Amino acid sequence: EVELVDLLADQPPRLAAYDCLCLAGGNPFHLLHCLRSTGADDAIDEMVAAGRPVIAAGVASCVLGRTIAHLRELGLCVPAMGCRDTVALGLLPFSVVPSANRWRSCRREFSATLKKVEVRYGPILTLDDDEALRAGPGLEMIRRMNRSSVYHHAG
Q1: DSSP readout, 52-93?
Q2: Per-residue pLDDT of the chain (155 residues; tens, 9 = 90+)
Q3: Cα 133–135–137 angle (5° rounding)?
Q4: Residue 53: which of 113, 140, 130 has the closest Cα?
Q5: pTM of the complete model beyond 0.70
Q6: Radius of gyration of the chain (CA)
């Protein structure tokens, strides 16, 4: 059974009781603000600690990493929507750039800019449109094109 949860309308702390959670799309600044202001970030920490998976696709994958501040410096056209807290959930040992295949194809300087931004913010994982992340326990990068291709990171 799949249940759709609206973080602003529902009771996010009950997320900790779910078998798994999938975060999809949206604005990472707004999503991070919602996770923090509703307590859903604590519920996600509980889920991961209990060994239940948290899956994130698209820009939602950014909130699982170390920071979302790098998105502004990369100029990825993501409005901050008043969010000043750019420290992400820290479930991953790096920050994330979603839809990297699109940015590489339309911006010649993307790879060079990414390297400069990594100097300031630490390691950054790029995800293409056909990839998602699963955190806890460990980490998996899920590729839709080849479902058996999974990146494992213990830790």
Answers
A1: --EEEEGGGGGGGSSBSTHHHHTT-----TT----B----SS
A2: 788 888 877 766 678 788 888 888 788 988 998 899 888 999 899 888 888 888 888 888 899 999 999 988 887 766 667 777 889 999 888 999 988 998 889 888 899 999 999 999 999 999 888 887 777 666 666 665 444 333 333 44
A3: 145
A4: 140
A5: yes
A6: 15
